[in-house]
């Protein structure tokens, strides 16, 4: 009974620390901005250029990215209203878990153009290579997510360590590094380039990045989802609502968010126009 009580106390301390550090709703605005930037970059690269056949396979991802950008903008605007944010903590914690999942999707998708890169002068895109890479990437992410879920269950049974709890405040991941993962990195990076004299270096770097991000990042949505579940069950995991900011500070924060949004939109538009001009 004493061991069970100690384990429950350790788990409670860990998720309370998570709720007030990496998983804090104060980070929701930053997460939304990151997703908007990543998805904006992806939307440009997945926009089929004229005169090149086979890019229709990317249209689906382009449309999904645009929808996710719209949702991220809505979340960013809502995150400005702190009273709303902390009054409905459980709901916004679910939103934050979804935002972490979008981040995993965006980062992994960014590596796929490198994985599928083919140095050729053909005016046709190898859509089948991209589709196969998407299937493989999805399998890696799903498998890694399952592993993180299993590891979380084991930690819940044993009780989270104090070192891991403190790591939340240090914003440092304490996940163990798998020797098999590093061996895989080495094989992917070295063997193809030795056999092909560096011809597939870009593909190898993309594959390394994909495996790394797909294996490490899913821990965030897994832990954020469980934290949202705990907030639905018990308010002991809720964050302490910060004191109301002065009116001048609120106006300054609002202007800052608006400037961020305008800057992101202008940067994406300028990048698109410049790239289109250079292409012609």
Mind explaining what this structure looks like?
It is built from 11 helices and no strands. The chain is mostly helical and 280 residues long. The chain has helices spanning 2-19, 28-45, 59-78, 82-87, 89-115, 127-158, 162-170, 179-196, 201-216, 219-233, 247-279. The chain has one domain. The chain crosses the membrane at residues 28-46, 66-85, 92-118, 130-150, 180-201, 207-232, 253-275. Keywords: Membrane, Transmembrane, Transmembrane helix.
Low-confidence stretches: 171-178, 187-198
First-last Cα distance? 73 Å
Beta-strand portion reads: under 5%
Largest sheet: none
Instruction: Please state the structural category.
Output: mainly alpha
In total, how many beta strands?
0
Q: Overall pLDDT, averaged?
A: 77
Estimated helix fraction: over 70%
Radius of gyration computed on alpha carbons: 22 Å
Q: Which outline best applies?
A: flat
Total individual domains: 1
Order of helices and strands: HHHHHHHHHHH
What is the number of helical segments per DSSP (H or I, 4+ residues)? 11
